[in-house]
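[step 3/7] fold_predict: job queued, chain A
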Amino acid sequence: GGRLLVFKDDAAYWTHIDPVNQAAITSNELVGAGGLIAPKSLLAVDQRVFYLAPDGIRVLSNTESQVISAPIEDKIQDIDIEYRKKAEVAYDKTTNSVIFLIQKTETLYYMFVLDGQQTWAMHTHAATVDSASNTRERLHLANMPNEAPLLIKEDVGYDYEKFAQLVIYQADWKAPLTGVDPSEGSNSGCVKT
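[step 4/7] structure written:
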């Protein structure tokens, strides 16, 4: 039979599947795995699973889960839980990096990059709110096969029925745009394609 990794808000389980009737036959809790608070923050890379748990960013290898976000943990814990629940993750195959995007405020996003899966870097991205047109920007990550992930900006009306087109940026984690001031509402570290 196979195994299925199942997450709850506060726990994780390996569930063993009966190959004949495709039903769960046993479920074993991974003690200390922390659970999953953001469904879009789950990423499997090279026999490891990265995810955002209540106590930080974790990696699960086989049956052991550990927090790997100690250098940036104060920044993560400073983010309201409702924003953390909307965190997204992507994998950059070109640099072997794991990228977490978490909204900090209505107009600010944090991007945490685990460069080469070894050291953390942090970038900020500004989003705008236009009260006159009743719209705001939301940022998203999109995984791309064999390429760097895309950072996508979505203009959304507050009534959620009015959607504008998406603007796609190719993420450039190493060299932010020169002459860009994030406080002016630009997306630092992004190159428009």
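[step 5/7] annotate
Residues 48 and 62 are 7 Å apart (CA to CA).
The helical segments are 73-77, 81-84.
exit 0
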